[in-house]
Amino acid sequence: MPQTNRRPSDFVDGSRLWDRHMALARFGAREDGGVDRPALSGVEADARAQIVAWGRELGLRPFTDAVANLFLRYEGRDPSLAPILVGSHIDSQPTGGKFDGVFGVVAALEAVQAIITQGERPLRSIEVVAWTNEEGSRFAPGMTGSEAFTGTRSAKELFKIQDAKGVTIQEAAEAVLSRDIDIPHRALGFPVAAFLEAHIEQGPVLEKAGIPIGVVSGIQGTRRYRVRVTGEAAHAGTALRAERKDALMAAIRMISAIDRAALEPADTMLTVGLLNVSPNAPSVVPAEAFFSIDLRHPQDEIVDQVDSEIRRITEAEKGPCEVALTQIAHARSLTFATEIRAAITRAAQRIDVPSMDIYSAAGHDARQLHYWCPTGMIFIPCHEGISHSPEEWAEPEHITAGARVLVDTIWDLATGKPPL
To answer: pTM for the complete prediction?
Structure first.
């Protein structure tokens, strides 16, 4: 019978939640305690199968689509209504941690289990989702699943993206889907009443403030690029420097000048995280240098200003070499739906968990869903703000608190209360 004097958050099991985190961490476990679980890989498919198994134990129905997004549906009293979608991703960086993305998926599953345990079925259906290739470490750029779902980019376009070995997203997705057992396919995109994503902060703000819950106000803008500098190979001992077409030296000049251009304002985020040199031999003048640029700032005008400088600098510093600059991603800063943020804040207040507004410096699938339906995010602290690292850590009590706020927010939205 329904226990109307209690809320779903009362039924969250922190031990079960933690155990599922540790169980998923075994898929792609590294010797240093981290996780290497590339998108659309065999090891991610194994983790996906585990999530499906947990869902089926609860009576949830799995679904998938052409890009291997995974959905677990808990039917509401009125299946004709648009569902509440809640989740994140399970792929990782090559040197990733146990919590990035996974927390959002496992917390969503725990939320549904708590609602089932409560004994009262919501009006709207709830679907747990694990989006494909959020990280973009194997297939760049990331957020493939949420982009395909929302139509931000077409599946046909995304299918062509290749990893370092020449495997396309289409080939990798088909391999993963071939391993599914009795999981029906649905078309990409369907009406969604709201989307919620729980995540570790990946920054130090909450930990420094001593606050366990962050109500995410928005996500900063970003541009991402790939730069290919083409020169000419030559003998390191005989080719005069004045006559060389040294691709690496040209790239270094570009990177140094771009770094200086992005020093103001001080909160501009600029990263060159990828640099490949060819032929990469000690006695050969480099014939090619290929590098990435990741640019982020909360103000779009700052991002646009540095973008102009990047384009000017790459041409100005190429010297005798050729340069090709390709922008692979561009996303404007955004502010999440006021009504969803208010619902998260109310849920935290009801169970006496301190919360604060916080801006997301990192990108998430919620960025794409923001343009599809009312969307919100819940952050929990991570130790020293470390993420994308084996040192990534979240305290069990914060994970439990995040799941409790998440489930009560889901319940309010799924029972048809304002704003839906």
So the answer is: 0.86
